[in-house]
Amino acid sequence: MAGLPIEFLPFPTRTKLRSTQILTSLPQIVSELCQNSLDAGSRHIEIGVNCEEWMCWVTDDGHGISKDGLSLLGTDARYGSSKAYSLDSLSLLSTFGFRGEALASASDLGCLEISSRTSRSRETWSIILKGGKTIYTGAAVRWKRTSQGTTVCVRDAFHNIPVRRLSHPTPLRSFEIIRREIESYALVFPHISFHLQFTAEAGTKENLFRIPKSISSLEVFRRLYGKALSQHVHEINVNQDNMRLEGFISLEGSLSKSYQFLYVNHHPVEHGDLQRIIESRFSSSSFAKHAYEESGETSLRPSTRRSPRKAEKKAVYVLNLTIPPDRVDNLLEPAKGSLHFGEKNAVESFLVSTVNAFLIRYGFSLPTERVLPVEHSPPSSPRKRRKLDSLDDSGCAEEFSEELNSYESRTRPEIPQVDPLYIGGVTVSGYGPGQADEIVWTDAITGQTFVVDSRTGHSRLQGERSADAGGTLCRERRTLGPPRIGTSSENHETPDWIRRALEANECYKLGEQKIRSLGHLPCHEDNQGPGAKHLRSQTAMEHGNESMRQKFVWNDVREAAVISQVDRKFVACTFNNSGDGMETNRTTLVLIDQHAADERIRVELFLKDLCVGFLRNIEAAGPREEDINAVETRHLTPAVPILLTCLEVKQLMNSQEVRDAFWSWGICFANRALDHGEVTDSVDGDDSGGYAQIAVHCIPEVVADKLLSADGLRDTVKSFLAQVNSGDIPYISRHRESVSESEGRKESDWLKALRWCPRHLLDLVNSKACRGAIMFNDTLSDEQCERLLKQLSATALPFQCAHGRPSLVPLTNFGQLLGDRGNSRHSQVNWTALEEQMNPD
């Protein structure tokens, strides 16, 4: 069969395919139109959105489009642009784009109307395009203007792509995305005013959102998000090698990354390599724990222990990086979200140095010049190993003295490489101060020099021996060496005369005698001493038992036999392990952590009730009734007020879906607080300090006590709102769609709700399960052990505790392990042949 001939795609098909790649959603259409207005030199931009009618419009006071320009768009709309005409001029562009495809794509996907007037024109001219065809051209009828500027209106967007509409976000979510996009432009163009309005289904205009022009990005940020996150800021204006970084970094932290804005040449940059570099610098510092609280500045060394459940703070910043246009390329995709740099290392180094300077200045990180890594210098000549004629009781060899340069000399100390010591056939590696992961630090007050382990943070005086008594031990000979290496006093018993003296007084109690055990002797493959190869093979044989590589299933826990409690910490039992592909020809001795097991039982008991109630709430149709909730709740009388930022209160006031998301988990707010008029939608002249109170009158009973202690309720609400803003938790309409896709009801369906559970609420449930579980040193009878094991077998995740740690560990196997083909993995011994050799007669 002959192949089909190659032909060109029809022109309408090509343009439609191209348009669907240029404009993918209603928020992106608004973004492209706003970028055109910014490139036109506008000082005031108005945006209107009607998501129900798939309609949007953007009006500006820019240069405008002439009548001839509109005619050109009507005859050949695609690739008509006023920004670049040659390849040589592309490297000098300072605009958002140059292709001239946005308007043409909008006309392919909907009905496009453009009305514009230039400064030299006395008339407002208009053109209407749909499906690539001109419907009307002439004097404007609807969008007449009294001054220069342009109005672009798109109606019935994606009318010819029904699938795109089905996958589109909800109207409220689309408005939030558009609002977020406008805010990002307002921060980097503070001299431009923006006005956004949202039209509801009934045609009423609501959610008016105004951002007046300001003198700086910091002032715009405070108008948008209040002063709660920008009360203490560090303003940045740094230049280096034709690069400039300006903006600010706040000393207050946020629970989400929603307040991180990075721009390159005034272009918003999506989360990518540059953001990850900044995030890595903040993560390696103490900013997450010691960032300023909303209530005020915090000490870097608080007197009270920080709660482990306290959420870590994320950085808040607005930074604009200016780079020569010929050194950056953002033309790889139509959305212009991907950036490539000509000198990427220089850009990254510039960002890192600026962020490090901020962290060091405010005490979130140590100065790098005071922490010098120890570099090893190889010895000038090979050094022979000393022969040890004798070994004393302490097991310590002759000490080597070394002279180190002081920190004040500002030079890196040269520490000679110390060869491993061979003592009785045992190599002592890691001896001496020359460790690659150690740093040297000198106290400026006392003048003492310390060696600090960069991994653990432990320190010791320079010249002293490390506390781990010789480092790693590796046996390197088959014959027996010294019985041990270490201090001689470790295993000595207390003398009788001291024992009798202490036993006479009850105030002095002798410590329990240490249980004798074999030390762990790992062997590194890079050690090439004598006999190392033999020891490695022996160690692999002893510790690499293939029979311990197995899997457990729920049925193993259900059929386990309890032996007894061990050391008041574990429950010893035997598993008749069936394994995957293994015959049931063995029994495994297993230790179960009694605390982890009971913690797993309790956490699933709490979470199941909470998640089942959540699923019932989102499946319920009709309006929300706060008094009827499938989650068991506790009504607070009087309602408990919590302090939030004005932006967070506005989000609760303006979004019914956000309030429904809280209600679905059993958290309800007082209607009076939401209807309070002190916090308005307008951000004009917000001098309230950025805070507002809201009352909570209903919380889930399972964690009610923890929510009411300290700031638990406030942190939960703020953390939940942060997850909603970042998109980690979709709106309740998305929950309902996901639940409706699953058919039938199963016992384990509650596990599906865990992916939507607020992170802080889940941490509180885990903490409650942990605090009330069986602890170590709690005595259990055999009957209690059996009941514990039975309850554990009924859980969904019996092999881990609430925090993800394993709840059991196998010790050894009894019997023979057979593989998939029934062949034993252990070599068989021919005892008959051995007996004939031993008794030849």
UniProtKB/TrEMBL annotation:
<dbReference type="GO" id="GO:0005524">
    <property type="term" value="F:ATP binding"/>
</dbReference>
<dbReference type="InterPro" id="IPR013507">
    <property type="entry name" value="DNA_mismatch_S5_2-like"/>
</dbReference>
<dbReference type="InterPro" id="IPR038973">
    <property type="entry name" value="MutL/Mlh/Pms-like"/>
</dbReference>
<dbReference type="InterPro" id="IPR020568">
    <property type="entry name" value="Ribosomal_Su5_D2-typ_SF"/>
</dbReference>
<dbReference type="InterPro" id="IPR014721">
    <property type="entry name" value="Ribsml_uS5_D2-typ_fold_subgr"/>
</dbReference>
<dbReference type="InterPro" id="IPR037198">
    <property type="entry name" value="MutL_C_sf"/>
</dbReference>
<dbReference type="InterPro" id="IPR036890">
    <property type="entry name" value="HATPase_C_sf"/>
</dbReference>
<dbReference type="GO" id="GO:0032300">
    <property type="term" value="C:mismatch repair complex"/>
</dbReference>
<comment type="similarity">
    <text>Belongs to the DNA mismatch repair MutL/HexB family.</text>
</comment>
<dbReference type="Pfam" id="PF01119">
    <property type="entry name" value="DNA_mis_repair"/>
</dbReference>
<dbReference type="InterPro" id="IPR042120">
    <property type="entry name" value="MutL_C_dimsub"/>
</dbReference>
<feature type="domain" description="MutL C-terminal dimerisation">
    <location>
        <begin position="562"/>
        <end position="780"/>
    </location>
</feature>
<keyword id="KW-0227">DNA damage</keyword>
<dbReference type="GO" id="GO:0140664">
    <property type="term" value="F:ATP-dependent DNA damage sensor activity"/>
</dbReference>
<dbReference type="GO" id="GO:0030983">
    <property type="term" value="F:mismatched DNA binding"/>
</dbReference>
<feature type="region of interest" description="Disordered">
    <location>
        <begin position="372"/>
        <end position="395"/>
    </location>
</feature>
<feature type="domain" description="DNA mismatch repair protein S5">
    <location>
        <begin position="221"/>
        <end position="360"/>
    </location>
</feature>
<protein>
    <recommendedName>
        <fullName>DNA mismatch repair protein MLH3</fullName>
    </recommendedName>
</protein>
<dbReference type="GO" id="GO:0061982">
    <property type="term" value="P:meiosis I cell cycle process"/>
</dbReference>
<dbReference type="Pfam" id="PF13589">
    <property type="entry name" value="HATPase_c_3"/>
</dbReference>
<feature type="region of interest" description="Disordered">
    <location>
        <begin position="522"/>
        <end position="546"/>
    </location>
</feature>
<dbReference type="GO" id="GO:0016887">
    <property type="term" value="F:ATP hydrolysis activity"/>
</dbReference>
<dbReference type="GO" id="GO:0006298">
    <property type="term" value="P:mismatch repair"/>
</dbReference>
<dbReference type="InterPro" id="IPR014790">
    <property type="entry name" value="MutL_C"/>
</dbReference>
<dbReference type="InterPro" id="IPR014762">
    <property type="entry name" value="DNA_mismatch_repair_CS"/>
</dbReference>
